[in-house]
Amino acid sequence: MKKQLAVLLAGAMICGTFAAPMTAGAEGAELNVTTTFAGEDGNAQNFKDAVAAWEETTGNTVNDASATSDETFKSRVEMDFQTGADPDVLFFFNGADANSFIEAGKVVSIDTIREQYPEYAENMNDDLITPSIVDGVRYAVPVNGYWEAMFVNTTVLEAAGVEVPGADYTWDAFLEDCEKIKNAGYTPIAAALGNIPHYWWEFSIFNNGNVTDHLNIPASVDEAGAWVAGMEDIKALYEAGYFPENTLSATDDETFAAFVDDKAAFLVDGSWKVGGIVGACQSDPEDPATLDTEKLDKFTVTYVPGKGERKATDLIGGLSMGYYISTAAWEDDAKRDAAVSFVEYMTSDEIVAKFAQHTASALKAAPEVDEAAFNSLQVKAMEMMSGVTSLTGAVQDLFNGECRVSTFDGMPQIVTGEVSAEDAVAEGLEIYNAQ
């Protein structure tokens, strides 16, 4: 069956059609490319395939330095620019994490590139290309968007006598379900608060604020009632025993394993986790042909429970990453054409449609999607997204660096009561507002 997919992003988020990708570029160039398409990222293999096709078509080569996206990766990219090891093409965040190399003039704007290559990113809706917060200029050409929602292990829910949550899921109903799941001998929430508290940090603040104000970082703790209340909500979940017993020492991989192994019910994560769950349902994570469809069918994805002004169908999401061309590559006559060609290929309608799948893109044209081409979890994600009422960016993408330490790294101290939520939030905001 084919159907049109509509996804909200600032009113509308537009998915892509299939078209022949551009392949211009000087033959024989060698590009150093860094992306986050690695590890369990669902597009890691798509990226490898696209690189191979571009190399074969153009005669150019790619030195792939892709790595899993985390704080170490971000620091590595920043260090590369600082030490003169600039990548030629970089797929990276377009929020505050990119500030340092944009301020240093290390990447070229889309408008500058269009002066010599007028068709560059012409298939994109410029209104959906996120401008830099440094200067309001667009640098990164997006591929696929993201959303953050709640994955569900229905096997655990059935064992606990809990129904799969829907679009009207409330915080109070969630707490009742967590208590039932806990009493049935399962872990309600798969999360490693001492390792990756990001998603609960984000939604807990969102749940105590609203769509309009979520991206406004408070000037001080006196104005940060939503932030303090959000940290206290996480503390309450911890005190109720709804996280794994080892949540403060476990890794994200360990708590994810508990979720896919039918030990935990709920997992709040991003759209990229669809690929991780699918991979966990394959006897060979690298071979899609080994997918256990019955095992995958027990997983679904729904909305994070809403509280206050936030409806459950108001999700965190957007187009937070894109392809940059470095100034070093732009000023290199031997690499400029190839760098432009590579980005044009990777952001063409055909390639973007493969990468976006159940998420979204900034493409101008909207395709018809054949559901038969997707696995059951991807189809469920599409159905979930069709009910989304809004997508709001992640405030943590703006509130980055040292200012996050007191509430990210300090989450174990907050939930155990060693540090008050108010003091932790105050410390982070003081650092942020002093910058």
Word description of this protein:
The protein is α/β, with parallel strands linked by helices and 435 residues long. It folds into 2 domains: 17-145 and 319-365, 3-Layer(aba) Sandwich (D-Maltodextrin-Binding Protein, domain 2); 147-314 and 394-434, Periplasmic binding protein-like II (D-Maltodextrin-Binding Protein, domain 2). It is built from 17 helices and 13 strands. Helix 5 (154-160) crosses helix 6 and helix 7 crosses helix 8. The termini are far apart.
State the end-to-end CA separation.
53 Å
In the predicted model, the low-confidence regions spanning at least 5 consecutive residues are 1-23
Task: Give the domain tally.
Answer: 2
Could you say what the CATH architecture of the largest domain is? Answer: 3-Layer(aba) Sandwich
Net shape: globular
- The helix/strand series, from N terminus to C terminus, equals EEHEHEHEHEHHEHHHEHHEEEHHHEHEHH
- Gyration radius, in Å: 22 Å
Proportion of residues in β-strands: 5-15%
Major sheet: 6 strands, mixed
Q: Assign the CATH topology of the largest domain.
A: D-Maltodextrin-Binding Protein, domain 2
**Distinct helical segment count:** 17
Write down how many β-strands occur, each being a DSSP E stretch of 2 or more residues: 13
Key words describing this protein structure:
5-stranded mixed β-sheet; 435 residues; 13 strands; 2 domains; 6-stranded mixed β-sheet; globular; D-Maltodextrin-Binding Protein, domain 2; single chain; alpha/beta; disordered N terminus
